[in-house]
């Protein structure tokens, strides 16, 4: 039996190409699955933060009273309560900012993003939130988020 080295070489090259194509397809699938998993993990982390915040309000009467009093008038709170309210609101608005960051990385659900302006509008309907935002909130958040919130609020005022 005489071996044709050209045929053996061609067969080897074809086998190698098939292996490379299979490897690329496998990697693409793994990357996609990893991205989906990352997206779910990020969103679960966000939900844990947000529900942790909701839990503070719903399970602690003093925190709920502080939240309601601060929403009515930030300036009428005692010095200690203004500090507590400010941290409570920073935590809530940080959750919203985080969701916007997730959206930039395409890690958030579109429906969740569409609700952010409604949440912001509902908060800013309260005079105490507006007072807190001017005095402290807008100075503590990232500038791009402050610009976004101000645009949502401005849109509400102009409509």
List keywords for this structure.
single chain, 159 residues, mainly alpha, elongated
- Rg calculated over all Cα atoms: 26 Å
**What are the low-pLDDT stretches, counting only 5+ consecutive residues below 50?**
none
Largest sheet data: none
**What is the oligomer described by this structure?**
single chain
Class inferred from helices and paired strands = mainly alpha
Shape: elongated
Topology:
Elements: H1 5-59, H2 61-72, H3 79-104, H4 110-124, H5 127-140, H6 143-158
Helix pairs in contact: 1-2, 1-3, 2-5, 3-4, 3-5, 4-6
Task: Describe the fold and architecture.
With about 160 residues, the chain is mostly helical. The chain has one domain. It contains six helices and no strands. It has helices at about 5-60, 60-70, 80-105, 110-125, 125-140, 145-159. Helix 3 (about 80-105) packs across helix 5. The radius of gyration is 26 Å and the shape is elongated. The relative contact order is 0.09. The mean pLDDT is about 85.
């Amino acid at each position: 039996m005489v071996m044709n080295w050209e045929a053996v070489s061609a067969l080897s090259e074809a086998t190698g190409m098939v292996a490379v194509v299979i490897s690329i397809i496998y990697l693409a699938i793994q990357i996609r699955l990893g991205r989906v998993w990352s997206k779910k993990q990020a969103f679960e982390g966000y939900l844990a933060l947000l529900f942790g915040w909701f839990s503070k309000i719903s399970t602690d009467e003093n925190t709920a009273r502080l939240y309601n009093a601060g929403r009515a008038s930030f300036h009428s709170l005692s010095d200690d309560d203004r500090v507590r309210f400010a941290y409570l609101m920073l935590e809530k608005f940080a959750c919203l900012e985080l969701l916007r960051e997730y959206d930039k990385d395409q890690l958030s659900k579109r429906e969740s993003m569409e609700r952010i302006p409604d949440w912001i509008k509902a908060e800013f309907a309260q005079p105490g939130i507006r007072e807190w935002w001017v005095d402290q909130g807008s100075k503590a958040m990232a500038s791009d988020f402050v610009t976004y919130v101000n645009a949502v609020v401005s849109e509400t005022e102009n409509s």
